[in-house]
Design a protein that fits this description.
- The structure is a single chain.
- This protein is an alpha/beta fold.
- The protein is built from 29 helices and 32 strands.
- The longest helix is centred in the first third of the chain and has 31 residues, at about 30-60.
- It is flat.
Length: about 900
């Protein structure tokens, strides 16, 4: 036994050693994976550190510390070492003994690699820990005497610049004030002066730039000076204004300095700031810009007026930004360019911004249209800022608040040349939270419309009417960004935005992307993909910061892959509209718990998943033109507890027949504000459900009734109704307002509860309809379209009691812009009394052989807005006129319908840019 003991000890030692080596070999695959993971984690820390270093070096002009620089270099070297080691390890694993699946061919080599892997894992972990502990990554550099400011080559400022330099060389001149109207080039001139000191930096100890802006607050100017003079914070932070003044004074009194103050709107007390007196002794200078000459007087400065450019200089500046190619692209364009440049009145910023906007405009027609746009804006403005910004056709800086700026930048998420429907755009803005009007959808819409108008008047958006007379879409107003403005807005959103505006990704039609490009989108806030194709298979994307996803017009999208929405935790807006082949939604849509806007219009989705009811923050749900959509299962809509707007138009399977269940679910939603719905077939009970609910009465905005054979009278008591469409209602005789089935309230109901909001009425193929006298209660009606109503003899029957009086009081048809009466064989009269039609733009008559007189009398005056009257020549010739002067007034506007078709509008009559 004594002899065996030493042998056993040796055997144990050998076994322990062998076992340890075997662990290195056996666990090599697992350790390689662990090393890969650890290295990826280290690379993430490396990226964070590197980004912090880059940011501080580029933006804050700091220099990385030696420790951080050494760590970065060591990580880069380590990455190469790890890559080589992983390659060796993977190669060694592939080498197996013949006939075995786990035994390495070279145990010694596997052992060495396994041991190196473990050591490298320790090194990687150590580097990761070191990188995570960095608090300071860069140190401030000594401040230069003068900081160069960005400046393009100036045009037309040479003589004025030389004059200012002469004044600054004059020892008797301590301060110079550059005054003039906004946008005249004062800041550009001041920037050129600042950069000139780069050539003579030894003459001054400090050249300091301060942007003062609206309110010349002493404290604000002091803080800028204290930071730029690098006075330690402990000497001024938390101190009084006088104490800060003393610190600034004691530093500057020993220096020869130049203080450049930009954009002053009122006098600034330099002594209160801490600026030493400017005298021959210290030879320091102050130069400032202002729009008010009185500021120069109040500050005792030498005033120098900055005037608009002379014509030759102005036109040279304009051509520079338009571009030679554009100017020479057509023989007529140089002359048109002179007209546009003269509209700028020599104002440099206007010449630059409008010149950029005109770049790429290479047809005379486009130039003429833009000239008209410019001339329609006011030539004179009250006050300084208003005068500047109204004449600056495309100035982003003129926008009044951050909400307006966010809304403007948001327009760039749509492709270039895209016509954006204003109604849809405002709904998207609401969904994004730009128009937070305390949950009031009506106020939010009004705010959105006001923003569109302000952007239009700032010439940052163009307003068009591409579907000028589209009865399906109504009075469709669209906005469009000029290509140059679109590019500028994208740049602002991606490069120069605030913290709320991160990078946008917009992929236009016809483009394709790779999986690597999609991977680079991870930090994106908004993504817009139009008709996109992928070069390769894309796994379920991960976008932790994504708030907006617009997938419009991808017609080849048949389905969304499983897991598509699994990694979008902050998605707020989702638009899948116009994916006609999309037949379903993945179940994980329930994970979009932050979603507030969902548009599924024009898709082929057949069934709404029950998981949809989990979207508790959803405010806007749009389900228009979903012809395949089946009845929405109960409890889905009622589960959307935050829903404010539901639009379910032309979804005949979903709302066919008795859809009272859906309406009752809407009635139970606390925040529901707007409902648009199409009803089909048996509609009496659903309409009665609407009438019986005060909430739904207030919410209903758009009602469409189609293919109805069980309704003789349509009772409409919806005070906020905006649009009504009736089609194929075969038994319908009249549209009336009722308290109940028996009591008519035409004349006792308060006016504000009539059709005060109704602006569009479309009626098609209601063969038994005999009147529409209820329209006297629609003072804001803008579009009236009636076709194929064979029994209609008179639209408004004035012989009814008090109708004439009410029609007069409510200014019947005073806001009507479009009137179309088609295929009405019995129609004898529009209205028995004369009407003025002061807003009429277009009248279209066809197939009304018995209409022998229009409701015009001697008091009629042609509306300045009228663009045309369309009808058959034979009908026009047989019309009877009370006064022949009316014929002479209207004949120039008449166009035979034969030349333009039954329902179309002559292109010659349509100016897409004219507001309706």
């Amino acid at each position: 036994m004594d002899l065996l003991s030493p042998i056993l000890d040796v055997a144990c030692c050998l076994w322990d050693s062998t076992a340890k080596r075997a662990v290195y070999i056996r666990e090599l695959p697992e350790n390689l994976n662990s090393l890969r993971t650890a290295m990826e984690e280290l690379k993430n820390v490396y990226k964070d550190v590197n980004e912090n270093v880059d940011r501080e070096e580029k933006l804050l002009l700091k220099k990385r510390t030696h420790v951080v620089d050494g760590w970065i270099q060591s990580v880069e070297a380590m990455e190469k070492e790890v890559t080589d080691l992983l390659a060796k390890g993977d190669g060694e694993i592939q080498k197996k003994c013949f006939g075995t699946s786990c035994c390495p061919k070279n145990c010694r080599a596997s052992y060495k690699i396994g041991k190196m892997v473990l050591r490298k894992m320790e090194d990687v972990a150590l580097k990761k820990t070191e990188g995570s502990k960095f608090i300071v990554v860069a140190e401030p550099l000594p401040s230069p005497v003068v900081m160069e400011r960005p400046l393009d080559k100036t045009v037309g400022l040479d003589s004025l610049f030389n004059h200012v330099c002469v004044q600054l060389e004059d020892e008797k001149v301590g301060s110079v004030g550059l005054y003039g109207m906004g946008g005249v080039g004062k800041t550009t001139l001041l920037t050129r002066i600042n950069n000139e000191f780069l050539k003579t930096r030894d003459e001054f100890d400090a050249v300091i730039w301060v942007t003062v802006s609206r309110s010349a607050i002493v404290e604000k100017v002091q803080q800028v000076l204290l930071n730029k003079l690098e006075i330690p914070k402990d000497k001024w932070e938390g101190r009084s204004e006088d104490e800060r003044k003393e610190e600034i004074f004691n530093v500057l009194k020993t220096k020869k300095f130049v203080l450049l103050l930009d954009d002053m709107w009122e006098p600034l007390d330099l002594f209160a700031v801490g600026i030493p007196p400017l005298n021959n002794g210290n030879k320091s200078k102050v130069v400032f810009t202002t729009r008010l000459s009185t500021v120069c007087l109040d500050m005792g400065a030498k005033g120098i007026e900055v005037n608009s450019l002379e014509w030759e200089e102005a036109f040279a500046l304009f051509q520079k930004y338009v571009g030679e190619d554009t100017i020479n692209s057509h023989p007529d364009i140089p002359e048109l360019a002179e007209i546009v440049a003269k509209e700028c009145a020599g104002l440099p910023l206007a010449l630059i911004t409008i010149g950029r906007a005109m770049a790429g405009t290479k047809t005379p027609e486009e130039w003429e249209r833009k000239i008209k746009m410019l001339k329609n804006y006011p030539a004179k403005f009250p006050g300084m800022e208003n005068h500047l910004f109204s004449r600056l056709a495309f100035s982003y800086d003129s926008l009044q608040d951050e909400a307006t700026k966010s809304c403007f930048l948001y327009c760039s998420i749509f492709p270039e040349d895209c016509e954006i429907h204003c109604n849809e755009l405002v709904q998207l803005w609401i969904g994004e939270g730009f128009l937070d009007e305390s949950g009031d959808l009506k106020k939010a819409r009004d705010a959105g419309e006001a923003i569109i108008e302000s952007l239009y008047h700032a010439c940052l958006l163009e307003i068009n009417y591409p579907n000028y007379y589209d009865y399906q879409e109504g009075l469709t107003k669209c906005v469009k960004m000029h290509d140059v403005i679109h590019d500028m807005a994208l740049w602002l959103a991606c490069q120069n935005g605030n913290k709320k505006q991160k990078r946008f990704v917009v992929v236009d039609e016809g483009k394709s992307v790779t999986a690597q490009e999609v991977e680079e989108w991870k930090g994106t806030q908004r993504i817009s993909l139009v008709s996109l194709t992928f070069k390769e298979h894309i796994e379920s994307p991960s976008f932790p910061d994504l708030q907006t996803l617009l997938l419009g017009n991808r017609r080849r999208l048949f389905s969304l892959p499983s897991g598509f929405f699994s990694y979008m935790p902050n998605l707020t807006v989702l638009d899948l509209g116009n994916h006609f082949e999309l037949d379903g939604l993945p179940m994980e849509i329930s994970k979009l718990v932050t979603l507030q806007y969902l548009n599924l219009s024009n898709t082929g989705i057949r069934k709404m998943p029950m998981e949809l009811r989990n979207l508790k923050k959803l405010r806007i749900l749009i389900l228009n033109n979903m012809g395949r959509l089946q009845r929405i299962p109960s409890q889905i809509i009622s589960g959307l507890s935050s829903l404010q707007l539901l639009s379910i138009m032309n979804c005949w399977q979903a709302t066919k027949g008795d859809c009272r269940g859906l309406l009752k679910e809407l009635q139970g939603l606390t925040f529901m504000t707007e409902v648009s719905v199409s009803l089909c077939n048996s509609v009496v009970l659903p309409i009665q459900t609407l009438l019986n609910s005060q909430k739904l009465q207030r919410c209903l905005k758009h009602l469409k009734v189609e293919q109805c054979s069980d309704m003789n009278f349509l009772h409409l008591l919806f005070p906020y109704l905006e649009e009504v469409e009736l089609s194929c209602c075969f038994k319908l005789k009249d549209v009336i307002l009722l308290h109940s089935e028996k009591e008519a309230v035409h004349f006792t109901f308060p006016r504000d509860k009539y059709f005060n909001h109704l602006y569009r009425v479309t009626i098609h193929y209601c063969p038994n309809l005999i009147r529409l006298t209820c329209l006297i209660y629609a003072p804001n009606l803008k579009l009236l379209y009636i076709s194929r109503c064979n029994s209609l003899e008179e639209v408004i029957q004035v012989e009814e009691s008090r109708v004439s009086e009410i029609a007069s009081n409510l200014s019947l048809f005073s806001r009507l812009r479009f009137l179309s009466l088609l295929s009405l064989p019995k129609l004898r009269s529009i209205c028995g009394q004369s009407l003025l039609f002061p807003s009429l733009k277009l009248m279209h008559m066809s197939g009304c052989p018995n209409l022998s007189k229009l409701p015009f009398d001697s008091n009629f005056k042609v509306s300045e807005k009228l663009v045309g009257i369309i009808g058959e020549q034979e009908w026009w010739n047989q019309l009877e006129w009370e006064d022949q002067t009316i014929t002479h007034q209207l004949t120039p506007y008449f166009m035979p319908s034969r030349s333009c078709g039954h329902n179309s509008i002559p292109a010659a009559l349509i100016d897409h840019s004219v507001p309706i």
